[in-house]
Amino acid sequence: MTDPTQGQPTRGSHLKECAAGARDIIPMMVGAAPFGVIFGTLVTSGPLHLWHGQLMSLVVFAGSAQFIALGLIAGHASFAVIWATTLVVNLRHVLYSATLAPHVAHLPKRWRWALGALLTDEVFAVAWEHYRHREPGTVGPYYFFGAGVAMYLNWQLWTVAGLLFGAAFPGLQSLGLDFAMVATFIAIVVPQLVALRYIAAAVTAGTLAFFWQAWPYKLGLLGAVFAGVAVGVLLSMSRLNLRGARRPVEATR
């Protein structure tokens, strides 16, 4: 009997899909490792108990939001400020979800909730590379799930390492290890720049993010993202309109 959520009928094929997702995200896991260690290290020197830091990784599972929340907590910010700031930072996940939605819309709700909880920047990059070459609705959740679970466990492991050993290396966060995450994001973005409209969107967002970085609550980042999306959409619409205008001309020849 075939599982309606996946074209492959056997459990073994599902496990292979999970393993493939976990394998393909390994480079991203390597880049996230120093980031997780630094987060755990910062928890040891902050106002939170160690178990608070691990609980944050278990429940929130969003590196940038966790770092920002940790800084705000150390600065005695109110819950409303912490909540609003992390919400703004994570709004980019709405764009990720909109991109992947056609490929997961056919899945049962339990799968969509599970995959949404596991969605991160790295998982999105790997899942989208897998889905973009396939027709929407033809691929099950197992590849996505395997990549997400692998990244989730990786984040927990390195958070624990930072919590346990961070106190022994108090200057760890000043060694520049966080550049590994920058390199990871570069590896995520660059392979996607396969057309002029993508390059224009990336340049617009990157430039505005640089000039707007002083805006409060990371609103400059959010504004830069929306500006980049707007540029990409406008160029995509122009491309479609140009293609549509060419067809009648070609038909009359």
Short description:
By secondary structure, the chain is mainly alpha-helical. It is built from 12 helices and no strands.
Q: What is the average per-residue confidence, as pLDDT, rounded to a whole number?
A: 82
What is the total tally of β strands?
Answer: 0
Query: Per the principal axes of the C-alpha atoms, what is the gross shape?
Result: globular
**Number of DSSP helical runs:** 12
Biggest β-sheet strands, sense, barrel: none
Strand content: under 5%
Oligomer: single chain
Q: Taking Cα atoms only, what radius of gyration do you get, to the nearest Å? A: 21 Å
Termini separation (Å)?
A: 52 Å
The ordered string of helix (H) and strand (E) elements is HHHHHHHHHHHH
Extract low-pLDDT stretches.
Answer: 1-8
Q: What count of structural domains?
A: 2
Helix percentage: over 70%
Structural class: mainly alpha
Pfam family, one: AzlC
Subcellular location: Cell membrane
Membrane topology: Multi-pass membrane protein
Family: Belongs to the AzlC family.
Structure description:
With 253 residues, the chain is mainly alpha-helical. The protein has 2 domains: 12-178, no CATH class; 193-243. The chain has 12 helices and no strands. The model is unreliable at 1-8 (pLDDT under 50). The chain crosses the membrane at residues 25-43, 143-167, 179-199, 219-237. Its main location: membrane.
